[in-house]
Amino acid sequence: MQSVKIEDLKSVIALKDLPDEHLQWIIDHAEYHEYADGELIAKYGEPAEIMWISLAGKVAFYMYINGRQVYFFTFENNNVTGGIGGLMPYSRMKTYPGYSYALGEVKLLRIHKKYFEELEHLNPDFIQKLIGYMTERAKVFATTQLQHEKVNALGNLAAGIAHEMNNPAAAISGISDDLKKRLTLNYELTKKLLQCKIAPEHLHVIRLLVEQKENEKDATRKMTTMQRMENEDALEDWLEENGISKRQMAETFSEIGFSTEDLVFIRNEVGPESFIEVIPWLENLISSQKIIKDLADASERISNLVSAIKSHVHMDRTNDLQPTNIHQDIENTITLLGFKIREKNIEIKKAFVEGLPEIPAFVGELNQVWTNLLDNAIFAVGKNGEISIETSRDDKNVTVSIIDNGGGIPHDILSRIFDPFFTTKKVGEGTGIGLDIVSRIVKNHHGDIKVESWHGRTVFSVSIPIVQTIVSH
What we know:
Helix content: 40-55%
CATH superfamily of the largest domain: Histidine kinase-like ATPase, C-terminal domain
Order of helices and strands: HHEEEEEEHHHHHHHHEHHEEHEEHHEE
Number of strands: 13
Structural class: alpha+beta
């Protein structure tokens, strides 16, 4: 083993001001190790018992998050770490949260934690210096964690939005094809209609009847499934008796609210011969109108999603505090998570207080809070579950409570849910934003977050001040 000299330790930033006798104490109580490039230095889950001092080379640290190694930090002999890594005195770390690998040839001195107390008696000021390096390291880790969480959340949200966009986009594609076929068919049907020499006033009467049915559609929607099927069957039978055999026509006329009496009215108006040609033309016209409405609905859906996305991620805004409408922010979040809500057929109940003022917030960050809490609630409830969103206010705060009727959070882990990297979800199931980040965002707004949970009811309550004292971010 290579012998380590006092001069070697003086090149380490954290040790350069220590007296020679203290440096010699470190040499006497440490073990020297060399690592080849890429060699594992520390393994996730192993007991954290060693503080190491870097004599040469760098150490890359990868946090272990949800089954993946995520690059976080490179330890080197600089002013951020002082050339010291691993377990520090007074650190609460019990096991290694990730993996450490050698970058190039690495030379370390390793000191077991059993010597920390003796080291503190030897040089209390040095211990305080190490605590300072540990604090700086924690700040770097927190910043890195926040960036990783934001990127993961954006990726998960983007995947959800793509899923949400796909439905209306696919609908528009299919609708366009159907409309093209219907318009092509219209030439042929209109030609046959003209050959019947139907009078313009007959078309006017039919138009008024259709418009009447359109205006009465609410009554049609109130029909039960069984009533609609019975009406379709009656229309189909009647049409067959009058020389028109096509189930699709019965479905179209039933959907708009036609009855057999309405068809009798049209036949009496135009005559039995013309009726044979009028009905296919009318069915094609009504179907075309419905297709156009479906096209408009799908386009509006995409437009609403784009609007929700822009508002949710706070595009074209500064990073300073901005007034925001909490109710609208929550509505946008529900829109963006709509595919998950529909997938489980979840009922969303809203009890929004009237007259809620706009509050100053870092809107993009606060929206991450609503996204995470709603996503967690969606994950927690079963099929046909229920989520309630309630808002209230007092003289100082606006409070948002998100309540789900899922299985609840076990009491043995309830105290840990705001810990960094803690999750009960499998890889890829969450938004990527952990509850520790949620807690940090709320605290950054001088707010407060609380959780209560038992089987069948979990409540996350977030209170945000109506007036903020933060001036920048």
